[in-house]
Amino acid sequence: MRTDKSDILTWLRNSEDYVSGQQLCERFGVSRTAVWKVINQLKEEGYTIESVSRKGYRLVESPADAYSESEIISRLQTKWAGRTLHFFESTGSTNPDAKRFAEEGAPHGTIVVADRQTAGRGRRGRSWESPAGKSIYFTIVVRPEFEPDKASMITLVVALAVAEAVREETGLSTGIKWPNDVVVNGKKICGILTEMSMTPEMNEIQFLVAGVGVNVNQDSEEDFTPELRGRATSLKMENGRQIDRAALLARILRHFEEDYDLFEKTLDLSGLQERYEALLLGKDNRVRVLDPAGEYTGISRGINGMGELIVEKEDGETVLVYAGEVSVRGLYGYT
Ligand code: BTN
């Protein structure tokens, strides 16, 4: 029944005209009663579905901010990203969930989505506030066939996908703080936590999980913890309107799939570098590199094909900063 619901909703969403009960029965190999039950279930969930005798059904409107497994599936336009989907109203953190599914054999592109996380995790051991009904929290499993030293580039690929999808969906102009924070008007709207699992011999990647958190419909600064105020914002706060999370998530996945496929062809960022650099904040400006081995400042000159930040130091030396534990700041403000 669950698959039928997603399938029927997808079919209705993608049809410009009425869909007859007969068409749905034949397409999904179910009885008329089964179709009718699913339609009623969707209506109960708040979908406005018009039924006209001899014509069939037509989806008029989805409930406001519908965010469920079937709603997300019905919006997917991908070949592999998100095609296996696990949706939780509430979970600890989608990253360990995704790792567990991957260990059990989940296919490339599997995603875990939650409306709320009770133990959301950020980078550097920080936590990630994850209240219900406001944000996107998801983790995607990828099964790369490349060497572990290429893995850090995936985070840049995800950041690019989010930045471009958010721009298209909201009209806001997005930037990327290297390597992977997505920023709007100088404040963070998205964080990405990538984790890698190696084969027992430790020479190959078994899978990667990339966890993405996007601040979508927080109404004001009050919705963020005191430490984040002034540094984080939401899409709604920036453009003044409620954003459809399912539509945005589907768009992020479509971009990610395209960008990942491009990345896989060359196993470097050559196909994405120009678009990434167009969004890179602080390019040709002074940055401070917080390297555990010693802090220094220089001018950011963009990224190379491996996703490393090119920094020209005052003494003329050019340093390639690897996207590991190093943090880079603009000299003023959050970015
Ligand atoms: C950061 O510190 O910038 C990274 C934040 C990553 C948050 C996302 S939300 C979905 C996934 N599950 C988690 O617990 N963390 C990531």
Protein architecture, described:
The structure is a single chain. The chain is built from nine helices and 14 strands. It is α+β, with helices and mostly antiparallel strands. The strands form three sheets. It has a seven-stranded mixed sheet with strand order 3-4-5-9-8-7-6, with helices on both faces. A five-stranded antiparallel sheet has the order 13-12-11-10-14, with no helix packed on it. Strand 10 and strand 11 form a beta hairpin. The N and C termini lie far apart (48 Å). The mean pLDDT is 93. It binds biotin. The site of biotin has 19 residues, from helix 5, strand 5, strand 8 and strand 9.
Search tags:
335 residues, alpha+beta, 7-stranded mixed β-sheet, 5-stranded antiparallel β-sheet, 9 helices, 14 strands, globular, binds biotin
